[in-house]
Amino acid sequence: MSTTVGLKIKSIREAEGLTRSQLSDLIGISTDTLAQYETGRIKTIGLEKLDKIVNHDRFHKYALWLVSEKTEPEVGQISPSDLNVYVQTHKKDSAHIQLPFYEISASAGVGLLAEVEERPKTISFEPYWLRNEIGVCPNNVFLMLVDGDSMQPTLKNGSMIMVNRDVDNLSDGVYVMRHDNNLLVKRLQMLPGGIIRVKSDNTMYDPWEITKSQLDGEELALIGRVVWTGQKM
Question: What is the per-residue pLDDT across 121-180, written as a single tens digit (0 to 9) for each?
């Protein structure tokens, strides 16, 4: 693994129309480390970080090219220069998927008692769009509503949000969490020492802090990361 891999990562990022910050959020590698790969200041990339790229749903199609220079379009293994043809081919073949839509609200204010329905409604989305534009596995996401004003202007009252249950790579972002049987939508900021600041985008609400170890308990649990929103104008 050499500088060539760093340049390949840059080619993938640019072909996908991503900034370093956006790529960092998707694969859990810091923007500073990505910059050092792309510029060649770090000459090698460890297998653990390489796996974060090639095993991501959005970037798995580049796995063969990334490690060997080879492509096999017939089995979906391409280079960034093949992306446009790949997109058009897969758009024609992709059937829509029905995502579960829970008619419950994740409160962006004081919190609402919410019980997930056993049989949710569904809303149709294109799998290719979910994988390549949103960067999620369609089987890992669901839809719900936002209630309250504490996440304004980012999320308005009544906004639909798409939540990704896959939160293995916890980083700064907007999440849905369960707190004392309430569903909350809040911005989480990672701080040193395993501390997480829980914030509202509306400055009228005060932040509070938790630890990573608290995120998998009976009173507090992480439901998923908000990856998309559809809002009224």
Answer: 888 888 878 887 888 888 889 998 888 899 999 998 888 999 999 887 788 999 998 887
CATH 2.10.109.10 fits 97-230, yes or no: yes
Name the residue ranges covered by the structural domains of the chain. Answer: 3-91, 97-230
Rounded-to-integer distance, Cα 41 and Cα 36, Å: 5
Structure tokens of 168? 């293995």
Give the integer Cα–Cα distance in Å for 99 and 122: 5
Specify the CATH number of the domain 3-91: 1.10.260.40
Find residue 161's DSSP bridge partners: 144, 229
- Give the span between the Cα atoms of 227 and 142, in whole angstroms: 10
The CA distance from 204 to 120, in Å, is 34
How many Cα atoms are found within 13 Å in the side-chain-facing hemisphere of 54? 19
- Cα 200 to the center of its chain, rounded Å: 19
Least Cα distance to 61 among 39, 35, 97, 85 occurs for 85
